[in-house]
Amino acid sequence: MKIALDPTPYHHSHSLLEFPRVAADLGYKYLQMTPHADMIPFYNHPKADDELVTLMNKACKDAGVEIASVLPVLRWSGPDEDAREAAVRYWKRAIRIAVDLGVSTMNTEFSGRPEKAEESERAFYRSMEELLPIIEREGMDILIDPHPDDFVEDGLAALRVIRGVNSPNIGMVYVASHTFHMGNRPLEIMRAAGDKLRLVHVSDTMNHHASHGLRYITNPPGNAVRVHQHLKIGDGDVNWDEFFGGLKEIGFLDKENTVMVSSVFAEDENADEVSRYQLDTINRYVREVSV
Known about the structure:
Strand content: 5-15%
Strand order of the largest sheet: 3-2-1-8-7-6-5-4
Number of strands: 8
Distance between the termini: 17 Å
Structural class: alpha/beta
Oligomer: single chain
Helix content: 25-40%
Radius of gyration: 18 Å
């Protein structure tokens, strides 16, 4: 298993090419490339040219850090056909960038719209028909997170959509911060996913269903909002014994091709301290469940 840093907290304090050195200085051997204006921005065409990819490879080599995964977020399940077609084009370039970075794992979100779930699912499979031959040819793992406000948010329902693609190259992401949107049954989801679960994000969140639905209040009542956080381990309601125990049970922690990402976004002002805390705490949990 690879433990990687999500450098999102450093996007405004460091340049893209500084991320490998930041990760190394914090004790991480791996980095996850999340959406960045200079590489693969949210929803738009990738901006990295071959020169920038070469420079990123050099920065990683110089820092002694590898990129464990590349995370694009594109509207490949969008019910708007023009946006979907554009997203497929962007995906093709994003896959090429990942290949040139020497990365074989990409993780992403389902996207689409929950109020148009049927139309979005059709769009997702339509995009897959075009992208899957490229994904399989390049030997790329595409791992998908049912993100809050995607067309599929429940963890078990997401697995059904993934199985429907019928490809060993398509798997699942479990984001701990999405636990209470995914059905709050991590062990059941992990057992059902098995080998399809190959990447997890480690950050805490509050249970928005707690206090008979009044943990968070929006006005007017009934707003179609999804609330969650990316807090450091222990600052929320995620059951970490169950989380790490479940990963141990399905063999996730013992595989070479799995990735565990620290993805805390709530404390940019303490990013160094929090990132080191996350790495130490992850390693402690892994040791404890492995005894």
